[in-house]
C-alpha cells in the first residue's frame, strides 16, 4: 500500500517513505478523536466526521497546493455547522458544503487564493476567538451530558442554571469528572517527560477517559455509531431546491469564506514550520474546493486545513504528501473494520477535547501586547469575537470586516494643517500661509474645518493644497464653503494652490 501511494505521488525515496509512513500513523491517531468530537459537537452522526477526514486524506491530500498540511473537519466550523443543521436540517448540509466547494474551486481557478492573505489578521483572530468562546460554552453542556441551547448568548446565559442542576445530579457529576479529567490530561501532557509521551495528547486523553468509563462503568452518554455507508446520505432534489432561500445562500458564502481563510492561514503557519516547498495558495484553494465538493456529495461535514493535525504531521517528520494520504487510508480502514470501537467513548471525553481546542483558539497571550502596540487592531479583534457571540458566525465576521475597513480608512486618512509663522517685519495685513498635507477624507473633515475656522477672518489666506495626496468630494465641498464664508468679510479672497 505505501509503495503504491509513493509511486502515485512520484516519490520513491525509501527514507521519505519511512518518515511519511510513521508520520501518517501519528496524524491518524490525532485525527480520530478530533473527527469524532467535531461531528458530535456539530450535531451530526460521528461517522460523518470520519468521512470528511477520509476525503481530506484521499482527495485533498493527493492534490497539489500545500505538501504537508492535513485537512479534515475543524473545530472552527463547529458552531456554523450546528446552526446550519438546526436551521435547515441534516439533508441540506450536503448542499451547503457542495456549494462552498464549488465556490472554492471557482476562486482557485480565478487565482483569488492569494487575496485571502489580505484579510485583516485581527478579524481572523477575532473570528477564531468568537468561535472558541461559543464552542467552549456549548461543550460545557456536553461535559455534563446536557443539551446546549442554540444561540451563543443563550449558551452563556444558561450556564448558571446548568451548574446548579449538575451539582444535584449524580450522572452529570460523573460525566463532568470524565470531561474534566480529559482536559487535565491535555493540559498536563506536554509537561511530562518526552520519553513518556508516546501518544499524541488528544489520543492519550480520550484513551484514558474511555478506559476509566469501561472500568468504572458510570451512567454517562457514549458516542452513538452505525455503519459508515449508512451514515452517508447524499443530498436529494428537495435539498437542492432550498438553494433558492436567501439564508441558505448566505450560509454557503459564510462556509466558503471561513473555510478558505482558515485553510490558507493554516498553510501560511505550516510553511513556517518546515523548510520544504512553499504553498501555492491558488492550488491549495482548488484542493480544498475539490475536497469540500466530494464531502458535499456524500452529505458529510465541511473540511478545512487543520493546524493541529498539520503541526503533528510536520513534527512527526513528514517529508511529502504521502503522509497525509496514508492518514486517510488508516481512517478508512478503521471506520470500516472497527466502527464499534467508537461506541465505548464517552461524549464528555470528546467535549473535553473540544473545550481544550476552543481555548487554544482564543489568543489570550497576544491580547495584552496587541492592546499596547496596536490598540485599534485589538478593538477589531474583540469586537469581532463579541459580534459572533451575540449574533452568529456570518454576521459577526461581516461586522469585523467592516470595522477593519473603517479602521484602515481612519489610519490612512491622516491630515496635517501647517500655519507658517508670521515674519517679524511683516505688516498686519500680510497673508497667512497655510499648507495642508496628507489625505483629506470625510473622516478627518472635523479636524480640517477646526483648523481653517481658527484662522483670522480679517486677513488674506494663501492655502497650499499641493501636499494633499487625495481629497474626496466632502472635503472639496467643505473647502469651497469655507472659502466663500471667508471672502464675505471683504478682505482679499483666499488664494488656493492645488
From TrEMBL:
Membrane association type: Multi-pass membrane protein
Pfam families the UniProt entry points to: Sulfate_transp (PF00916)
Keyword Lyase carried by entry: no
Domain SLC26A/SulP transporter, first and last residues per copy: 17-384
The UniProt record lists the keyword Nucleus: no
InterPro entries attached to this UniProt entry: SLC26A/SulP_dom (IPR011547), SLC26A/SulP_fam (IPR001902)
Cellular location(s): Membrane
Keywords: Membrane, Transmembrane, Transmembrane helix
Membrane-spanning intervals of the chain: 21-41, 87-106, 118-142, 162-189, 248-270, 329-358, 378-405
PANTHER family according to UniProt: SULFATE TRANSPORTER
Protein name per UniProt: SulP family inorganic anion transporter
Species of provenance: Streptomyces albidochromogenes
Amino acid at each position: 500500500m505505501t509503495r503504491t501511494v509513493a509511486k502515485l505521488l512520484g516519490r520513491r525515496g525509501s527514507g521519505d517513505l519511512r518518515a511519511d509512513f510513521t508520520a501518517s500513523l501519528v496524524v491518524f491517531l490525532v485525527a480520530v478523536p478530533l473527527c469524532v468530537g467535531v461531528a458530535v459537537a456539530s450535531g451530526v452522526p460521528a461517522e460523518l466526521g470520519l468521512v470528511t477526514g477520509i476525503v481530506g486524506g484521499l482527495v485533498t491530500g493527493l492534490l497539489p497546493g500545500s505538501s504537508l498540511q492535513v485537512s479534515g473537519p475543524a473545530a472552527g466550523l463547529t458552531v456554523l455547522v450546528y446552526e446550519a443543521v438546526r436551521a435547515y436540517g441534516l439533508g441540506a448540509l450536503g448542499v451547503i458544503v457542495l456549494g462552498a466547494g464549488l465556490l472554492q474551486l471557482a476562486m482557485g481557478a480565478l487565482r483569488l487564493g492569494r487575496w485571502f492573505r489580505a484579510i485583516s489578521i485581527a478579524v481572523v483572530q477575532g473570528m477564531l476567538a468568537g468561535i472558541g468562546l461559543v464552542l467552549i460554552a456549548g461543550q460545557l453542556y456536553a461535559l455534563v451530558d446536557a443539551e446546549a441551547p442554540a444561540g451563543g448568548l443563550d449558551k452563556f446565559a444558561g450556564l448558571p442554571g446548568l451548574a446548579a442542576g449538575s451539582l444535584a445530579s449524580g450522572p452529570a457529576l460523573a460525566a463532568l469528572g470524565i470531561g474534566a479529567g480529559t482536559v487535565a490530561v491535555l493540559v498536563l501532557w506536554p509537561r511530562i517527560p518526552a520519553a513518556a509521551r508516546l501518544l499524541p495528547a488528544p489520543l492519550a486523553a480520550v484513551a484514558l477517559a474511555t478506559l476509566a468509563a469501561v472500568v468504572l462503568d458510570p451512567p454517562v452518554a457514549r458516542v452513538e455509531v452505525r455503519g459508515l455507508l449508512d451514515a452517508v446520505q447524499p443530498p436529494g432534489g428537495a435539498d437542492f431546491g432550498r438553494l433558492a432561500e436567501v439564508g441558505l445562500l448566505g450560509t454557503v458564502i459564510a462556509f466558503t469564506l471561513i473555510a478558505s481563510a482558515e485553510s490558507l492561514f493554516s498553510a501560511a503557519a505550516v510553511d513556517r514550520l518546515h523548510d520544504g516547498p512553499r504553498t501555492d495558495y491558488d492550488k491549495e484553494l482548488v484542493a480544498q474546493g475539490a475536497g469540500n465538493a466530494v464531502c458535499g456529495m456524500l452529505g458529510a461535514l465541511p473540511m478545512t486545513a487543520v493546524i493541529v493535525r498539520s503541526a503533528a504531521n510536520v513534527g512527526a517528520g513528514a517529508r511529502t504528501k504521502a503522509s497525509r494520504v496514508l492518514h486517510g487510508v488508516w481512517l478508512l480502514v478503521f471506520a470500516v473494520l472497527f466502527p464499534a470501537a467508537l461506541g465505548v467513548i464517552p461524549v464528555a471525553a470528546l467535549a473535553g477535547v473540544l473545550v481544550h481546542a476552543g481555548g487554544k483558539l482564543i489568543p489570550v497571550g497576544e491580547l495584552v501586547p496587541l492592546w499596547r502596540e496596536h490598540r485599534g487592531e485589538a478593538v477589531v479583534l474583540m469586537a469581532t469575537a463579541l459580534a459572533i457571540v451575540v449574533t452568529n458566525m456570518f454576521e459577526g465576521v461581516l461586522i469585523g470586516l467592516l470595522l477593519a475597513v473603517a479602521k484602515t480608512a481612519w489610519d490612512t486618512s491622516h491630515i496635517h494643517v501647517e500655519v507658517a509663522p508670521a515674519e517679524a517685519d511683516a505688516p498686519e495685513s500680510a497673508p497667512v500661509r497655510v499648507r495642508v498635507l496628507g489625505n483629506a477624507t470625510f473622516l478627518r473633515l472635523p479636524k480640517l474645518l477646526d483648523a481653517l475656522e481658527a484662522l483670522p477672518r480679517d486677513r488674506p489666506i494663501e492655502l497650499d493644497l499641493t501636499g494633499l495626496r487625495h481629497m474626496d468630494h466632502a472635503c472639496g465641498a467643505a473647502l469651497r464653503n469655507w472659502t466663500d464664508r471667508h471672502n464675505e468679510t471683504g478682505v482679499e479672497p483666499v488664494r488656493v494652490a492645488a
